Amino acid sequence: MRILFVCSGNTCRSPLAAGIFNVLAERENLPVYAESCGIMAFPSRASELSIEIAAEYGADISMHTARQVNEEIMQVAKYVFCMTESQCLALREAFPKYQDKIFTVADTDIADPYGGDRSAYERTGKELYNALKTLIGKLKERMDDIDD
Fold first, then answer.
1. Is residue 16 a contact partner of residue 53, using CB atoms and an 8 Å limit?
2. 8 Å CB contact between 126 and 110
3. Which residues are catalytic?
4. Which residues pair with 103 in a beta bridge?
5. Are 37 and 30 spatial neighbours (Cβ–Cβ below 8 Å)?
6. d(Cα 23, Cα 18) in Å, to the nearest integer?
7. Reported pTM
8. pLDDT tens digits in sequence order for the chain, 148 residues long
9. What domains, with CATH codes, occur in the chain?
10. CA distance 137 to 36
């Protein structure tokens, strides 16, 4: 199963989310893999602070290259998780046939740390980690139900 995380530029939040998610999913032996993209992305590396924060959670996103969301990426994802409600709305408008699989990753918007200091990235990492633990738990329950 493929999960997609989406943010604005695909250099901070969504690659961080995908990296942490993949570490958590592997620990739980879930057959799920996360990727990321951005609504307004241009090819570039993940931000240095995102790379550092991801490493603190056991994820290596140092080879990440930002990419723009497109039809193919949306089609193959089982679920799409955005960092903010406005990003969900933008994706639902741009890709209406996939609107039923587009959600926010957390109950509240995950703030963009872009341009911020290390503490801003640490807060984002912690918010994502907590939201992703919850998400992993929900996915695990769904898979347990499928196995029964």
1. yes
2. no
3. 7, 13, 112
4. 81
5. no
6. 9
7. 0.96
8. 999 999 999 999 999 999 999 999 999 999 999 999 999 999 999 999 999 999 999 999 999 999 999 999 999 999 999 999 999 999 999 999 999 999 999 999 999 999 999 999 999 999 999 999 999 999 998 887 655 4
9. 2-147 (3.40.50.2300)
10. 20
Output DSSP code: residue 126. H
In terms of Cα–Cα distance, which of 84, 136, 81, 88 is closest to 110?
Answer: 84
| 124 in Cβ contact with 12 (< 8 Å) | yes
- CA distances from residue 28 to 48, 53, 83, 97, 121 in whole angstroms, order as listed: 28, 21, 23, 31, 25
94/108 Cα distance (integer angstroms):
22
Contacts of 90 (CB under 8 A, 6+ apart): 39
Residue 110 CA to residue 93 CA, distance in Å, equals: 21
**CA dist 103 to 23, 75, 87, 109, Å?**
21, 15, 9, 11
Q: How many CB atoms lie within 10 A of CB 42?
A: 11
